[in-house]
Amino acid sequence: MKIKKIETEFEVYENVNELPKDVSELMAEAVKARLRAYAPYSNFLVGAALLLDNGEIVTGNNQENASYPSGLCAERTAIYYAGSQFPGAKIVRMAIIAGSVKNKTTTPIPPCGACRQAILEYEINQELPIDIYFMGESGEVMRSKSLANLLPLVFEKSVL
Length: 160
Ligand code: THU
What we know:
about 20% strand; binds tetrahydrodeoxyuridine; 6 strands; alpha+beta; 3 helices; six-stranded mixed β-sheet
């Protein structure tokens, strides 16, 4: 046997003020989207904002359901909306903000595994890395220049 090591890389910003203006503006859209989330069961609100290569900004938030598994995360709500409204447009950048209503979330919250898989599908199809920024309600912002950093071993269509 041998050991295989995979290196991934992230940038860490002290807070939103350290972000370039266009990125903090996209994060501000995610902040607004987060406040429109429907999350009465978890009280954990998530907002996502996407910048598309046609200049459109698409946002989404988590939508929960009394039948818990029927709900959907903010990231997938946003990317599926983008895919349905602007087929063929590439997702250039994604900003995500997440936090609990009950206590202040001050650490960056990365997209869940299911969302990473969903974002991967778009990144592979568009042949352009998606620049992903994520944060808690306040505090540090993490940046991954590609979804690949968040999901180093992938299951994708080429294996089918
Ligand atoms: N959630 C998201 O919207 N995105 C994630 O990546 C993680 C979790 C939502 C789903 C659910 O509504 C709530 O956060 C708690 O899990």
